[in-house]
Each structure stands twice: as C-alpha cells, then as structure tokens.
Amino acid sequence: NNWKNKIKLNSGPVIGYENDVGNKTTFRLCYPESIISDPSQYDANTILVFVPFKPLDLRWLVDVIVKNKVSDRGFWKKPPASIIYRNNQIRILNPSIVKRAAFDLLKLPMDIPIEKPPQYPTTGIIAISMALTMCNEVHVAGFKYDFINMNSTLHYYSNDTMSSMGKMLYHNISAEQILLKQLKSSNTVFDLTGNF
User: How do the domains of the chain map onto residue ranges?
Assistant: First the structure.
C-alpha cells in the first residue's frame, strides 16, 4: 500500500491475500475471460481497465454494461454474464498501450502467416507498458516465469503452472522474460520481489 498507484491483473483476488498484495487497487486490467466476478472482491475505489483483444471483447463489454444477454461464443473461456463494477469505474485501455507492449517492447512480428496463431503480450506486460506510460517510476512485484521448475505456480491465487503457460501459443513468454530482465538491468523497472 506504499505506492501511489497499484495495478492488479485479471481475476487476482485481494481479500484474503492482503499480506501479499495489500488492500489497495488503483487499476485492475482484464479482458472478458479474465475479469474478476466475485462480488466479495468489489472495491469502489478501483478503476477497471478493460483490455480488448478482439472485436468480440468490445461487444461483450457493451452487452454487460447495457445488461443485454451475453453470448459466450468465440471466447476461449466462458466470460461472466455481468460485472461487479459500476459503469463509472470502467475504462477501455488505449490500444496504443497494447501496441507498444507487443511491437516496441516485445518486438513481436507485425505480419503473421495465416497458418500461425497471432501472439499477444500477457496482461502483465501490458500493465508494465501502461505503467511506463503514466508513471515516473515503476515497481513490479510477483511477476515471474520460472523456466527451471515447470511445476511452479504462475499466480499467488491459483494452481496454474509454468507447464500450462509454456503450451500457450498466443504468448511468447521467453521474449517476455528477456524483456523483464532488460527493463530491470536498465533500471527502467524495479523488481520488488526478485523474481526476474
């Protein structure tokens, strides 16, 4: 809680994890499949920063805001039919932040052969891109990719492991790990937990 702005990601809970993550969240970045939906985790002081990856994500957001029936077709995981945040708490992330994360920071290819799936930065890298845009100093806690122990957990709140992340075709976690080390060694980002 010592920082002016705190960014949390996806469905990572706060309540029950205050000793690890504090109890303050300024911004929560997520997309339909990753949004937090547990009402007990609601915080009236948090701004939900919506990260659309596809046109369908925006359609979903409009539907939940105006309380239309929500379709789960076209999503890799069923998104919730409603959200816990009020409309005045919702912002849509400027696409240039995602573009910067993908092409300037990660150097992902802009032209992808039709037979290959596109690659996207993870929400963590997008959050770092956003923080670098709006903050003079960026401190990161808990972001890690443990390539030595593929059974290590990815998040403080779930049992998802590195082996499951390694199978993801949509993220280049090797490139992300290299970027994290570069950002740390250049003192662009400070690693509070010594994970990268």
Answer: 1-93, 96-122+143-195
